Amino acid sequence: MNIDPVSVVNAIKAIAPATVSLGIQQAQRNEYIIKVLKRLNLDSIQPPKDFEGVYTYALVEYGVFKANYILNFFRNKEIKKTFYKAFAEEALAINNEEWNTLKDEAQQAKIDLAQVEEFHQVFLSVAKRSINPGEVITNVQFQEHLKKSTELQEQSPYPDEFKALIEEKTKAFCGRVFVFNEFDDFLKKHPKGYFTVIGDAGMGKSAIAAQSVSKYKAICYFNIRAEGRNTPDQFLQSIRQQLINRYQLQNAENDNLPTLLTKVNEKLATGKPLVIVVDALDEVEQPGSGNLLDLPKNLPEKIYFLLTRRRYAQNEKRLLTEEVPEQQLDLTANKYEVWNRKDVTEYISSFINDEPEHHGLKTWIQKRNIQPPYFIEQVAQKSENNFMYLYYVLPSITRGDYQDLSLEELPEKLQGYYEQHWKQMEMDTPDKRTNAIILCVLVEVGKPISCESIARITGRDEYDVLELLNKWLEFLRKQKQNEEDYYSIYHQSFADFLRNQPSLKREKRNNNIDWQEVQRLISDFNDQLWASLKSGEDEDE
């Protein structure tokens, strides 16, 4: 059979309302489905066996009570083609690469990926009901494929260690078209190579890296100094496992990176490149003068690295290659000024308009009789095209932190935001300076640490530590480890701010602290912890 998806969508729109109450949904859903199927001359009991019939039937079962923009998404030819490929191969399970394609399409259409997964489940259910014994594929085979499909859906397209970070960075991503255009040109012009995105702290390098992982289905590694995830061994271990998993490499558990890439090159389909994204080279901890992360001087064909880092002097370069094409894109260059400003204004505009929870920002603007275009332009100027500034300032306005300030009094630049918050917390007063040691411990430890450990290091009450951490939570990353909350600095720029704070540089007097004191406290804590563990081992013996 052959029914145009447009006809299916129109039939659903004509018979079933797009939004109804939950009670009506439960009571009348089947009634509406039957009505739509009858209009399309389909059997309301037995779905057709061919793909067109299965897809049409699934779209009806799924589409009743769905919004029009969601229905329109599933009548898209590319979306339908992806499901046809799974059906034609008799596997019915959509593989990882196809799921990535669907995710990209859904993201562009602003469709929640959960909607795609829901439709896929309906599609599988319909396909199962359409199968007669001995035809197309046996039910036993189908159950195996259904199980495999479910497992594929549950798998994240990203490495578990970076899944939360990538999803966070790509959630509100916008713009940066000029970056991707230049990288796409690099891919077309060169058979392999290194492409490096350079920028100052907060300019969105990590967001570009995260979006690149999604866009190019890339292997990836994110160096995060604040979490102690920034050494060559950690990098190689992660990249190696990702390559083994994706390309089913054999006997590669101890391979170095050049050997791994050579094996991958042999498995790449014709014309199919591999992109490896590595974020924040400037945060790598590695002595010596060789290439950071031991990146290869030579690359096999069709292997590309997309790197990000802060600016550094040319004589500090830690990427030496031999006849491998290299290109750098410096976000701070004058020629990108217009593009950076465009992306920043687009981000501010979307923040104001797209999310219901940002109503507080709209109210703040309206109370001051500010025209939104003027607000957008002034905040963009104050940010100096820094996305981390926007990441902090816009939610702060939304929360009501700046009720007593005018637009002109908002902080200037990211550094200004940190300084203003520091003053608001009265951290320079004698009784508050002692609290700064808690933040300094987070910086100096350089990896996630529990509230209990911070309390033991600083000799403070655990409740007092938690209270301070909650006051600075917007600057911290909180994550669960062994059912306990662990804290680390969210962005390296804040760690840099703390290290450069004048009140934290003075010698230990008048209730002040210095970094050597922090290091000594941490060292004492580690010694005590080691002694405790050693004592436990001796008792076990």
Provide keyphrases for this structure:
alpha/beta; three-stranded antiparallel sheet; 8 strands; about 550 residues; 24 helices; five-stranded parallel sheet
Can you offer a commentary on this structure?
By secondary structure, the protein is α/β, with parallel strands linked by helices. Helix content is 56%, strand content 8%. The chain contains 24 helices and eight strands. A hairpin with a 2-residue loop joins strand 7 and strand 8. Helix 1 (5-15) packs parallel to helix 3, helix 14 crosses helix 16 (372-383) and helix 20 crosses helix 21. The protein is globular. It starts with a helix and ends with a helix. The relative contact order is 0.07.
Spans of 5+ residues with little confidence (pLDDT < 50)?
19-27, 132-139, 149-155, 507-511, 536-541
Question: Order of strands side by side in the largest beta sheet?
Answer: 2-3-4-1-5
* Radius of gyration, in angstroms, nearest whole number: 28 Å
Strand count, sense and closure of the main sheet?
5 strands, parallel
Structural class: alpha/beta
* Number of β-strand runs: 8
Contiguous helical run count: 24
How confident is the prediction overall: mean pLDDT? Answer: 81
Helix content: 55-70%
Distance separating the two termini:
75 Å
Strand content: 5-15%
Name the shape in a single word: globular
